[in-house]
Amino acid sequence: xxxxxxxxxxxxxxxxxxxxxxxxxxxxxxxxxxxxxxxxxxxxxxxxxxxxxxxxxxxxxxxxxxxxxxxxxxxxxxxxxxxxxxxxxxxxxxxxxxxxxxxxxxxxxxxxxxxxxxxxxxxxxxxxxxxxxxxxxxxxxxxxxxxxxxxxxxxxxxxxxxxxxxxxxxxxxxxxxxxxxxxxxxxxxxxxxxxxxxxxxxxxxxxxxxxxxxxxxxxxxxxxxxxxxxxxxxxxxxxxxxxxxxxxxxxxxxxxxxxxxxxxxxxxxxxxxxxxxxxxxxxxxxxxxxxxx
Length: 293
Known about the structure:
With about 290 residues, this protein is an alpha/beta fold. The protein contains ten helices and 16 strands.
């Protein structure tokens, strides 16, 4: 009976999201733990079989850093952005496209799903341009100077025809967050930003971001202080109060932009919890923070 009750509770959500696009950003624990990645891939296949249209964007920061260390190259970050010279860009592409992307596609296929791996360069899915140099202030002198981030890009335009083609043929697209500029150069992009931009462009019902935190906490030291729901007009006050701070700020800003672009709701959930994806979509309570208009 417990199993039956669970199915009955899930039914309204299966009906509500039938034939709706769900963008899932794989990140955090779901990217570094083999078992967690396998579980997340299986859950993604389940979403497809109950009638939803999942799409995946993945990150890969820790794996890129490990590969750089193995090759004797020291990673450098400015305000959370990886300084990317040509050699680093080669490593980024090798890890994201050649290792992580193919690994996710393989796991989805193993669990009976049809998936295809692409990067933002395929069919010029993501046209990007180089980010402007980052301005930082010297704490001792107070002087401001610029640091070139290298081949770090920002999304300028999307050509989602290729994603529509996959959706029409029942494939789950798995997207690596790299883009191409007007001169054909490869650029390193933020995976959260890519997921948000594509989710909006594809009229996704939901954007779900898997992280290594429970969601937005009112008290960062208290996991029980989870804020279950945030409206986008509350975000500015939460940042001023320091509730949203550090690395969560750009994540939330991505969420707000996605909502303003037409995504119905964005969910920040803890990928360390087994089947977190299903718990967030198919249960009344959910497990993370939901951001809505």
